[in-house]
Every structure is written in structure tokens, then in C-alpha cells.
């Protein structure tokens, strides 16, 4: 019997095997049978139709390279990936569903009918169809998970404003009633303003992920002064760290100072958390005719092949210290690079002679003009 015909005649045993496997996934265990079936019947129909559709060798090779024609409407595999993402299963579990489906179909077919002369060709076509379904399902799964991640970040940034406003009002009350030294309340006030600015950035990162782009608010500024103020807050936040600061050359230009301070804060925090505990973090700002370079250097070792990987979001180096922070998202270097690129510059990392250095280079004259969008 041809495999396409078998998929149609043995649909129920195939679906029963698929449902039995789905129940082994914790997130799906309590679901009822219609929800577990999801779009699997339509998926089997699509695979059967695919097997009946003649395909040339050139078309087969193109599909194996991921060059299948784009479907005109949402496929059953895409819908399956979308709904499974909403159910909370992992991408590994999603792929495992397809792996189990492939195995059960071939096993049931082989048990029911002796292999015919065209069995190898049919099996190859079937594997191509399953692989295509996996690719479509994973694509929509990833898009849905990313959409909800960005929604979460947007909600987080929005909801944190309430507590932050309470802190800001408390600081103002402390200043008005002189219940703390003026220098302390001034420092607290600057910290609150920085937190508010960072929340604005969080909301704009979420906005940028939906295609709106990163907004820069350029204005004439001396980056040395802006960075010195940021370092004052960072020293308070890392009381045990030694953070040195040097300035060379002309550091004035048109920049988004808040964004640059955010990038610097990420680099310094990265150096303090991952550098040698007894080492010093050295911050240098060097101004030239056309750009300003900000570098953060600390003692440490990073294999050269790992440095570029650290700029990827949600990627972290292994940290041997049990006291090292493991709750952050690994976004600091990624954000620093995006801020530099929005300015028309770049962020790079190097490691030589036991010293790790990350450098942000920012052109003094932006190509988009002051206050424009950058993506």
C-alpha cells in the first residue's frame, strides 16, 4: 500500500499514537483529547496530499535546502506550532512530537504492509514532508514565543512605574523635611531619574522589537561629564568595586546621553560581575576629531572565539563563582551594541595579556540627525 493511502486509511491509529506521546509532555498531560489532536488530522491530510503531488529531483533538492514555496495561507503545521507555544511546551518538546509522529507512522506502515519496490522513494518523500512541517511549526512557535516575551517586557516596564513613582515621592519628602543629608537625597534623586530613564529604554526596546525602531534623542553633550555622573551611581551600586576613570581629548558631540550612560552602565556592571574579584575596572573616554571612544577594561580571560557570542541576547559566560549573579538575562552587551549602532557606531570586545576590554565608538556626527529614529 502506498504511504499516502496508508495515512488516510490508518489515520485513527496514527493519531492515537501521537496523542499518547503528547500526554508524556507535562504541559500537555491534563489537556483533553480534542486539544491534544489540535491540527494533527489536517497535518496528516497535508502530508498525504504532498506525497501524491509529483516532485522533480530539482524540487526535492530545493526543499532539502529550505527553499520550499511559501504557502499562500497559514498551514496546519504553522497553526500547530502557534498553539503549542501558547500551551507552554518547549521547542525541544515540539520537535519531539514530530519525531514521535514520524516514527509511529513508519512503524505502523511497516507492520501493516511489507515494503514494496517504491518504499525507499516514498519514505524519502515522507521525511521531506515531515521536515517541512517541522520547519513551519518551529517558525511560528518561535514568533509566538518572541511576541509574548516582548509583551511581558512591555508590561514589566509599565508596571514598575508605580513603585518607582512612590520611591520618587518619598525622596522628595525626605528632601523637603530634611530627614537625611542633602547629599544623600540628591544621590537618591539622581538614581530614581536613571531608573525612570532605563524604564523608558525598556519600553522602547519592546517597541523596537515590533518594528518601530530605537528612538535617539540627540543633544549637544560632554560625554565625559555624563559618564562621570553615571560612574558615581555605579560606585554606590557596587560598593566593593574599584572603578577608575580617565578622560582624554575632546568628548563633546551630539549624542543621546541617557542611552550612552545605559551602555556604559552595562559594560561596567559586566566588568564588576565577571572580572577578577580583586581587580580594578578601568573606564577611559577618548575624544577625537570625529568620534568618541569609551572603553571598559578589567582583568580576566575570555577565549577569542567566545567574545562575539557574548553580544548575542540571552547568552552568558559560565561563571564559576557560586556567589555570581545568575538571575540576569545576559542582555547587557547586546544592549550596549544596539545603542552604539543606533548612533552609527559599534561595540567590540578584545582579550589580550589577561585583560578584557569592551569598547564603544560613537561618531560625533550622526547620519540620522538629532532626535531621529534608529533601528
What keyword list fits this structure?
five-stranded mixed sheet, alpha+beta, elongated, 375 residues
Verbal overview:
The two termini are 55 Å apart. The chain has helices at residues 3-9, 11-22, 33-37, 40-52, 57-64, 76-87, 91-112, 119-159, 161-177, 182-209, 223-237, 257-274, 304-307, 332-342; strands at residues 214-215, 219-222, 242-249, 252-255, 280-287, 291-299, 346-352, 355-363, 373-374. The strands form 3 sheets. The protein has a 5-stranded mixed beta sheet with strand order 3-5-6-8-7. Strands 1-9 form a two-stranded antiparallel ribbon. Strands 2-4 form a two-stranded antiparallel ribbon. Helix 2 (11-22) runs antiparallel to helix 7 (91-112) and helix 11 (223-237) packs across helix 12 (257-274). The chain is an alpha+beta fold and 375 residues long. The longest helix has 41 residues, at 119-159. Strand 7 (346-352) and strand 8 form a beta hairpin.
Element pattern in H and E: HHHHHHHHHHEEHEEHEEHHEEE
Structural class based on helices, strands and sheet pairing: alpha+beta
Beta-strand share of residues = 5-15%
Number of DSSP strands?
9
Strand order of the largest sheet: 3-5-6-8-7
- Share in helix: 55-70%
Distance between the termini: 55 Å
Mean pLDDT, all residues: 83
What is the 3D form?
Answer: elongated
Amino acid at each position: 500500500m502506498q504511504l499516502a493511502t496508508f495515512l488516510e486509511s490508518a489515520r485513527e491509529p496514527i493519531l492515537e499514537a501521537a496523542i499518547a506521546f503528547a500526554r508524556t509532555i507535562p504541559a500537555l498531560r491534563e489537556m483533553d483529547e480534542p486539544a491534544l489532536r489540535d491540527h494533527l488530522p489536517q497535518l496528516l491530510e497535508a502530508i498525504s496530499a504532498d506525497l501524491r503531488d509529483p516532485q522533480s529531483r530539482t524540487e526535492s533538492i530545493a526543499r532539502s535546502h529550505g527553499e520550499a514555496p511559501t504557502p499562500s495561507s497559514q498551514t496546519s503545521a504553522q497553526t500547530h506550532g502557534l498553539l503549542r507555544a501558547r500551551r507552554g511546551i518547549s521547542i525541544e518538546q515540539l520537535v519531539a512530537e514530530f519525531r514521535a509522529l514520524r516514527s509511529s507512522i513508519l512503524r505502523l506502515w511497516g507492520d501493516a504492509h511489507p515494503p514494496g519496490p517504491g518504499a525507499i522513494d516514498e519514505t524519502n518523500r515522507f521525511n521531506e514532508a515531515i521536515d517541512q512541517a517541522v520547519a513551519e511549526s518551529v517558525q511560528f512557535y518561535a514568533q509566538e514565543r518572541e511576541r509574548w516575551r516582548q509583551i511581558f517586557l512591555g508590561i514589566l516596564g509599565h508596571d514598575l512605574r508605580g513603585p518607582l513613582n512612590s520611591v520618587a515621592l518619598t525622596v522628595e519628602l525626605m528632601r523637603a523635611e530634611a530627614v537625611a543629608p542633602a547629599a544623600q537625597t540628591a544621590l537618591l534623586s539622581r538614581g530614581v531619574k536613571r531608573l525612570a530613564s532605563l524604564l523608558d529604554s525598556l519600553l522602547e526596546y519592546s517597541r523596537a522589537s515590533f518594528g518601530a525602531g530605537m528612538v535617539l534623542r540627540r543633544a549637544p553633550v560632554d560625554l565625559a561629564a555624563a559618564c562621570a555622573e553615571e560612574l558615581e551611581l555605579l560606585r554606590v551600586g557596587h560598593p566593593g568595586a574599584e572603578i577608575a576613570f580617565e578622560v582624554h581629548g575632546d568628548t563633546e558631540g551630539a549624542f543621546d546621553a541617557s542611552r550612552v550612560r545605559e551602555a556604559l552602565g552595562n559594560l561596567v556592571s559586566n566588568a564588576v560581575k565577571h572580572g577578577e574579584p580583586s581587580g580594578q575596572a578601568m573606564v577611559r573616554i577618548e575624544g577625537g576629531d570625529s568620534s568618541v571612544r569609551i572603553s571598559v577594561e578589567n582583568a580576566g580571560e575570555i577565549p577569542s572565539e567566545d567574545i562575539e557570542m557574548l553580544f548575542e541576547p540571552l547568552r552568558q559566560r559560565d561563571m564559576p563563582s557560586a556567589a555570581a549573579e545568575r538571575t540576569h538575562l545576559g542582555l547587557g552587551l547586546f544592549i550596549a551594541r544596539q545603542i552604539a549602532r543606533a548612533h552609527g557606531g559599534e561595540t567590540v570586545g578584545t582579550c589580550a595579556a589577561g585583560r578584557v576590554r569592551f569598547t564603544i565608538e560613537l561618531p560625533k556626527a550622526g547620519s540620522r540627525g538629532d532626535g531621529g529614529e534608529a533601528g
